[in-house]
Design goal:
single chain; about 180 residues; Signal recognition particle alu RNA binding heterodimer, srp9/1; elongated
Length: about 180
């Protein structure tokens, strides 16, 4: 990968940071306006689109020249505001609020998350639990439960296989801590 000059990379980062910080300044903000002034603009056909917000008793409009205004209509005048704006060629929308949800859906997701965490904990315990240590077999042969010969049995077999005299075998057993042969 070719190296880029530090100056070019830092300039690009600086320009990106400035654009991020300046973005809210370029955002469109609605200017407050009286209902009478908005009615006059609607009558003259300057309103391109409008959004009626019944919960706040306000109308947000965009004029044909691109300006944005917000006006509060008189109480109970929602239908009058809509018909006035539509009569003069404005595209009118009505802001609908989301209905309140019941808590049952949230409870389902909480229960599902608890079950998933429990399953993960069980899986982690199963995978990471300690394995039991190998235990000697109960038959006294010196072999372990895993089928491996014990250290003393392996040493004794090696001495016998090498053809050592019985005295050497006895010395080997004595080194292991077992009693010498009689």
């Amino acid at each position: 990968m070719p190296k880029r000059p530090l100056l070019t990379t830092s300039c690009v980062a600086l320009v990106a940071a400035l654009l991020v910080l300046a973005a809210p300044a370029f955002a469109v903000h609605s200017q407050p306006e009286s209902w009478q002034a908005l009615t006059a603009q609607a009558n003259s056909g300057q309103v391109a689109s409008a959004l009626v917000v019944p919960k706040k008793s306000e109308v947000r409009v965009r004029l044909k020249n691109g300006a944005h205004y917000t006006a509060i209509y008189p109480s109970g005048g929602e239908q009058a505001a809509i018909s006035l704006l539509r009569a003069h060629g404005a595209n009118v929308g009505i802001h609908k609020t989301a209905k309140a949800s019941s808590g049952h859906v949230r409870y389902r997701y909480i229960a599902l998350a608890i079950l998933a965490l429990g399953a993960l904990a069980a899986l982690g315990y199963y995978l990471l639990r300690g394995r039991p240590a190998a235990r000697p077999a109960a038959d006294g042969t010196g072999a372990t439960a895993a089928g491996e010969p014990a250290a003393s049995a392996a040493h004794g077999q090696a001495a016998t296989a090498a053809g050592d005299p019985p005295a050497a075998q006895g010395a080997a057993r004595a080194d292991d801590g077992s009693p010498p042969p009689a």
